[in-house]
Structure formats: structure tokens, C-alpha cells
Fold:
Amino acid sequence: MSGYKHIETLIARYIAGHYRSVLEIGTGQNTHVAELLQRAGVSVTCSDLKIPSGILVVPYMVLDIFTPEEITPSVECILAIRPIEEMMAPLISFAEWCDTDLLVYHLGFEGYSHPHRIIDCGVPLCLYVTHQN
Structure:
């Protein structure tokens, strides 16, 4: 394996070993992690500003992290892969509102100044909010 699919596989393996339900935020059309999680028996829902066209094999919902309104998903983990920096504060607030863990994989050596723990699952996975595990 190489490139992003290798990274996404490592992330999915870690999550499948620690959580039973996940909401992936900002999925876009790349549902690779979600599909791996679903195959591993994890309940997963993808979300973005719009539902992508084409055949989807995982559940998808429309969610704007900047205005999530009263959406409170019942999940153990919220996941964001390579979110833009402007999404970080709303992601943290949303995870705290939902009382759930927030895992973020940043592109390269990007980060966010909010305190977090780095989980080494083969790639650096940042745990910003801890409520479940």
C-alpha cells in the first residue's frame, strides 16, 4: 500500500479497534475510511455540505460544521481527515456538544493550537476531545 489509501487504512484499523460508531465529517467523495469501518462492523455515517453523486455504499448526511444547528448524532467518535484549519474550532465545539471523542488526521505536519493528544497508529492521529475512550 502507498499514499493516502495506506494512511486511511491505518486510521480505519485504529478506529475499528476502539469505537463502535463514527461520524466522519467533511468526507466529500472519498469514503475509503468509512467503507473500511463499515466492513469491520463499525456503524459509520459520512457527512459533508452536500451528498456526492453516484453510488454510495455508506450512509451519508448533509452537515455544515459551521452551523450544525440541533444535530446531535449518537456516536462514539467524530472523525475528520485533512480538515481545513477554519473547521477546527467548530469541530471541537461540535464534539464537545455531542459529548464524543474527536479524532483528526492533519495533512502533513499541520496542527491546531488546541491541546490534544497524538495517537501513533502508524500515522499521527490527533485526539482533540475525549469523552468515550
About this structure: The mean pLDDT is 88. Residues 35 and 58 are 7 Å apart (CA to CA). Strands lie at 21-25, 43-48, 60-62, 77-81, 101-105, 117-120, 124-129. The first helix runs from residue 3 to 18.
